[in-house]
TrEMBL record:
<feature type="transmembrane region" description="Helical">
    <location>
        <begin position="171"/>
        <end position="198"/>
    </location>
</feature>
<keyword id="KW-0812">Transmembrane</keyword>
<comment type="similarity">
    <text>Belongs to the binding-protein-dependent transport system permease family.</text>
</comment>
<feature type="transmembrane region" description="Helical">
    <location>
        <begin position="12"/>
        <end position="29"/>
    </location>
</feature>
<keyword id="KW-1003">Cell membrane</keyword>
<feature type="transmembrane region" description="Helical">
    <location>
        <begin position="68"/>
        <end position="90"/>
    </location>
</feature>
<keyword id="KW-0813">Transport</keyword>
<feature type="transmembrane region" description="Helical">
    <location>
        <begin position="218"/>
        <end position="244"/>
    </location>
</feature>
<dbReference type="Pfam" id="PF00528">
    <property type="entry name" value="BPD_transp_1"/>
</dbReference>
<dbReference type="InterPro" id="IPR000515">
    <property type="entry name" value="MetI-like"/>
</dbReference>
<protein>
    <submittedName>
        <fullName>ABC transporter permease</fullName>
    </submittedName>
</protein>
<feature type="domain" description="ABC transmembrane type-1">
    <location>
        <begin position="61"/>
        <end position="245"/>
    </location>
</feature>
<feature type="transmembrane region" description="Helical">
    <location>
        <begin position="127"/>
        <end position="150"/>
    </location>
</feature>
<keyword id="KW-0472">Membrane</keyword>
<keyword id="KW-1133">Transmembrane helix</keyword>
<dbReference type="GO" id="GO:0055085">
    <property type="term" value="P:transmembrane transport"/>
</dbReference>
<dbReference type="GO" id="GO:0005886">
    <property type="term" value="C:plasma membrane"/>
</dbReference>
Length: 269
């Protein structure tokens, strides 16, 4: 039985209808709320509007997501670099495997106060913490993607004496690309969590700092507003990444369709 497939835009729209319906239900259901802990959605949205009108919102967004994108870019470079080395050299992977298993099980959040105390309260520690959270899913998925490539592919490349650099660009990276894409997608969302957490310690600006200060001042509507803003931005980042991934990895779906067609024809015989 052939399942119906949808394009990336249609998929996003299919996934968006339920959150939109819940937001509408929340807006209507909370319209008459007088609770300090559960303010109405209109009140929450008004705090975001006031935040933007004060001019502080844009500065906080630039600070927070400037750190985020720089850390994510560093995580991609480092994760792919070390992932390729460990994936291509089995002995190196065997030596480093216990250390990788140990460090990936540690919750990154526990490093936040330690890093802040050691490195200070500037942008550097926050970028480092976001990098630390993002690099692991990219690194581990890159390793698994390289290891999943059939040994015969490497043997063929060596028999034709393809240079190592060209082999990595034309054979290894394309072969591991689907798994790498999964790692980057995980890093996109994990990095947003660490973005907020890192700004709750020793920070004077940023979205996470705004949420923390609002909560400490018992301005819960503003804290809700900052939290929802991060969630919406995170969803938008994921949606954009899905569109990019869908375009970049289009060839993998074409190969899968060809394989499926051949399998169907073989069964028909």
């Amino acid at each position: 039985m052939k399942l119906k497939t949808y394009g990336p835009v249609a998929t996003i729209l299919l996934q968006a209808w339920l959150p939109i319906a819940l937001v509408v239900l929340w807006f209507v259901g909370s319209a008459n709320s007088t609770s300090v802990f559960w303010p109405s959605l209109s009140t929450i949205l008004q705090t975001v509007v006031d935040w933007a009108a004060s001019g502080k919102l844009w500065g906080d967004l630039v600070f927070s997501f400037g750190n985020y994108f720089l850390a994510l870019a560093l995580a991609i470079v480092v994760g792919l670099g070390f992932g390729l080395v460990i994936g291509l050299l089995p002995r190196v992977g065997q030596v480093l495997s216990p250390y990788l298993d140990f460090f990936r099980t540690l919750p990154i959040v526990v490093f936040v106060p330690i890093v802040i105390l050691v490195l200070g309260v500037g942008r550097g520690p926050k970028i480092f913490l976001i990098f630390l959270a993002c690099v692991w899913p990219i690194l581990l998925n890159c390793i698994e993607g390289v290891r999943a490539i059939a040994p015969s592919v490497f043997e063929t490349a060596r028999s034709y004496r393809i240079p190592l650099g060209l082999r990595i660009r034309r054979v290894v990276l394309p072969g591991a690309a689907p798994q790498i894409a999964i790692g980057i997608r995980l890093a996109v969302t994990i990095g947003l969590v660490m973005l907020v957490v890192s700004e709750m310690y020793g920070s004077t600006e940023g979205v996470g700092y705004f949420i923390l200060q609002s909560g400490q001042r018992f301005q819960l509507a503003a804290a809700w507003g900052g939290t929802l803003l991060v969630g919406v931005i995170g969803w938008a980042f994921t949606a954009v990444y899905v569109l990019i991934e869908h375009r970049v990895l289009a060839w993998t779906r074409e190969d899968a369709d060809v394989t499926r067609t051949k399998a169907v024809k073989g069964d028909g015989k």
